[in-house]
Design goal:
By secondary structure, the protein is an all-alpha fold. The protein has eleven helices and no strands. The protein is globular.
Amino acid sequence: MDRKEAIELLHTHIKNPKMIQHCLASGAVLKALAQRLGRNEQDWELAGLLHDLDVEITQADPYIHGLKGADMLASVGLNADIVDAVRMHNEMATGLPRSTEFQHALAAGETITGLITATALVYPDKKVSSVKVKSVTKRMKEKAFAASVKRENILECEKLGLSLDEFCELSINAMIGISADLEL
């Protein structure tokens, strides 16, 4: 499956434009992580793009979200590593801790997009290009800001050998690269 086919699949199963934007942002961040770490860029981008494929079908139920999506992706022939990362991006559904680099990357990468987006939206111009690393790291400490963003997931970047600052910079730059698609 290529990026175009993945986006078509997203639009088949997800109608909320903000959720589509989240998936696009996640794909961009995962691709940037793969570049940085020397991993398979296409697989990592696909995982980012498709990790929430089941979010509307499952109504984001934390006990099944990710499981259904993984099954959907397996049924269309995506490789087992992508399917596994998607299944494990929501530990609540599996009851198991994340253990692989790919699992940690997807959990951290998809989660930071929410914090960066929320940070951009409090800026006067509401542009991701205005977001600074220092602003994101400051917001990480403000538990009431974007309260649904799981900070512990973002900190899994350290399991990838990246500091929080490095991860924020990489993620912001990845999102800037597709800012028109994100409307940010």
